Amino acid sequence: MLTIGELASYAGVTVRAVRHYHAKGLLPEPERDPLGYRRYGGDAVIELIRIRTLADAGVPLARVRELLRAGEAEFAAAVADIDRRLRAEIRERERNRERIARLAAGDDLALPPEVVELLHRLRELGVDERIIRVERDGWIPLAARSPERVPEWTARKREQLADPRFAGFYLTLGQALDWTVDDPRLAGLADELAAYLTRMADEQGEDSMGDTGVEPRFAELMDALAFDTAPPARRLIELLEERGWTGWTRLERVGRGRVSG
């Protein structure tokens, strides 16, 4: 026979909890022995463990009382239902853990894996972080608007970045953000970039530049979001248009068909 302290310790609860369960009518309170102690047998241990287990699982004490009085079949069905609920809560908690972990991952939180990989590649190439932010901010609405095309677009961009000349433009564009809008180097960069685009379109066909399928008004909005806060970049777009190319999200050879990439 166990004292109340021994019972509580064995079942993994406090003496206060045992007394609370007595008060709620969940656990029968034995009579005192001749020495004035309440003694608990094996049945009390099993009953207390059942109460603690159900309570720890989030079952209200009123429902615990009902289950303790239920028949074997009803009790088993209730336990199975509790188990299903707990499994669902565990799955949701795991999803929450994944979301919390992604908070520390920065770009990973709002972007598809293919885009995250692409941004990592730009960092590996040494591209200025400001350009990477512009790239990131452009991908978010694209991915939201046409998620099914993201793998195709990112694969095309990776192919382009494999060309050292194209990657070099990214590096130079990062430097250009520190130039003034009247810096003559912008004109030189526009000359090189326009010549590169023209050569690619002529050699491989304009379709090889890629067709994002982005509507003109949406593309204009994306360009504005990307470049309006960076005057040198905006000036570069203007210089490119003077050299036969317009837009950025939706590149188009002036006077000819659309070329987007």
From TrEMBL:
<keyword id="KW-0238">DNA-binding</keyword>
<dbReference type="InterPro" id="IPR047057">
    <property type="entry name" value="MerR_fam"/>
</dbReference>
<protein>
    <submittedName>
        <fullName>DNA-binding transcriptional MerR regulator</fullName>
    </submittedName>
</protein>
<dbReference type="GO" id="GO:0003677">
    <property type="term" value="F:DNA binding"/>
</dbReference>
<feature type="domain" description="HTH merR-type">
    <location>
        <begin position="1"/>
        <end position="70"/>
    </location>
</feature>
<dbReference type="InterPro" id="IPR000551">
    <property type="entry name" value="MerR-type_HTH_dom"/>
</dbReference>
<dbReference type="InterPro" id="IPR009061">
    <property type="entry name" value="DNA-bd_dom_put_sf"/>
</dbReference>
<dbReference type="Pfam" id="PF13411">
    <property type="entry name" value="MerR_1"/>
</dbReference>
